[in-house]
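ARCHIVE CARD
Drawer: 12
Card no.: 0347
Subject: one protein chain, sequence and derived structure
Cross-reference: see card 0346
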Amino acid sequence: MISYVYKTIIKFYKFFKIDTPLLILIILLSSLGLIILYSSSGGSLSLVYRQLVHLGLATSLMLVLAQIPPIIMLRSAPILMILGIFLLISVLFFGSSGGGAQRWLDLGLVRFQPSELMKIIVPMTIAAILSEKTLPPRPLSVVISMLAIGLVVLLIALQPDLGTSLLIGASGIYVLFFSGVRVMLLKNKWLNLLLLSSIFSGSLFLAWNYFLIAYQKRRILTLFNPESDPLGSGYHIIQSKIAIGSGGLTGKGIAKGSQSQLDFVPEQSTDFIFSVLAEELGFLGVLLLIIIYSLIIYRCLILSLRCEDNFSRLLGASLTFVFFTYIFVNIGMVSGLLPVVGVPLPLISYGGSSLITLMASFGIIMSIHKHKGPRYLQ
């Protein structure tokens, strides 16, 4: 029986050709996430079981995407982009509301956020546009890319979902950065720097006075002085920082954190789950988490750099940096270094949509590594 199971697993593995180091790291991180989720939910196995279902669906999608050659992604990127923009426009007119925002499309059996799809579609489309010719790309390709990124960011910001819109915008900017784009509006580098700084400052002024709504401004102001409203907008950050600081070197132990177990930490199974981990596993637990994250990022970059075409390299590197951005933003948010935005901790926080998007990214990275031979580039 054991021999049969072993042979079946080996046959399955050889068929899918999944990258072993990356798969092992994902399993380790997901296992750690399930342990922390069990603790943060007060020992609720039902939440863990639901997350296991999410993991099963997300892993299945990863395996499927790992079998699709990059050339198919390259050719389908424009169609996916048009479909994604259509769905974002549909959300503004027909979307269902929740929590003061209109971000979901309810199709009866399925209720989903089109913005989650754009986390994959935007970098894929920009990589397809910029990889048509030799790098660095032509100015026309850069302009088209910027317009596409700007349109998607605007549509998501109107939901309103500023945090997601900025993160998706960053995913497209990463592709531009890796393509070797140089922003030189003026020949003199100092004048160019001054002009770019002025444009950036002007954009911040316009955003603060004309685009940001009240609660978004309040989140930014709370970042600098959370104690000004300790029972209101500053409550999340204050309780999170107390939990992180009380963990010490080794933590208080699984399911023994006072801040998390007594429900002082808000959203402790989703956005603020890092606070639970830091309190119960301490600095050593946080260090372990960061090491696993770093190894995943390193492995994904290695797989991307080994690709033989521009599209695969640009797409793989940008998806890897999107993964890093989510880690950076979430840890910075719960530590009081960044404004509070709805960004989950990858593979640790409870949730299905973000998990499926992340595993889809890993599936694409595995695909571009698996299909890196010349025969797949035709």
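Annotation on reverse: The chain has a mean pLDDT of 83. The chain has one domain: 21-376.
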